[in-house]
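Now for today's protein:

——
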Amino acid sequence: MPPIKSKSKDKNKKIVKKSELNKVDNLNFIRNKIDVIDQKIHKLIMQRSIYVKNIAFEKSKNTKGNSIIYRPAREHEVLMALLNRHSGEFPKEVLLKIWRTMIGAYISMQGNLKVSYVSKLEVLVKDYFGITMDYNKITNIKKSISILPNDVNHILVLPLPSNKNNWWQNLLSINSVNIIGNLYDNLYEDTKGYILSSQALEFSKHNKVIYITLIKNVYEISFDKYLSINNYLILAKASKTNKEVIILFAKNSVSQKDALKNLNDIKKNSVKSLIELKIIGAVSMNNKERN
């Protein structure tokens, strides 16, 4: 009697082949889905480009070709909304980098944004604004600040003000230059630089408002006490003369109206000590600074 051939091996072979085939089919199905998503993303990027150009056109009609193309307060709100609605395993830091690069490209589509900076901030600046900007490394900070009023689309990135980084003192005498934004690696880290421009201040939902004052030095201690009691943070100080002190300080504010009220309150309570007082900056606070 001839030996009976087992059918189990052939059956197992068929099962393995079918199983492998199913795996390939599943992978191809998923990859096709990803390809469709990629095409949709690309299509939306191109559509967004059309609207950006439309915005640039509408702006140019009202500003004779000198419209503001960089708005850090609005950008901050866009990025915060992005983070608030984000879910899943995709890293938030990478998501922010993608959006920041895309925003930089769209800014360049609206016009030429010139970005000046000091050498110590070069890596941070270029990583933040992307590859499409007109970059300019500077050595003379005072001169660079003085020429900002010539072009509303020229910004200057400088290190945080301190007694050593005393560039901020120039803002006491220059009325048309403001601190309009801040720079950080991501929205969860400390601010590493400030952005200066001749454009008007724009407020977001959460702001750090920056003030500068010139006072008689005999009132320095009492003025410091007033700032401390009212939750102001002193950022830097410097003696202008042997009788005068310049102070840079800040306070969190929810709106321009709130900031102006604080300004008026300081004036009312420090009449004798004040020689000059004004708001020179409003920067959006990131997640770490809010907490």
Notes: Strands lie at 114-117, 134-137, 154-159, 178-183, 193-197, 207-216, 233-241, 244-253, 274-284. The CA atoms of residues 38 and 56 lie 27 Å apart. Helices lie at 8-63, 72-85, 92-110, 122-129, 141-146, 220-229, 256-269, 287-290. The longest helix spans residues 8-63.
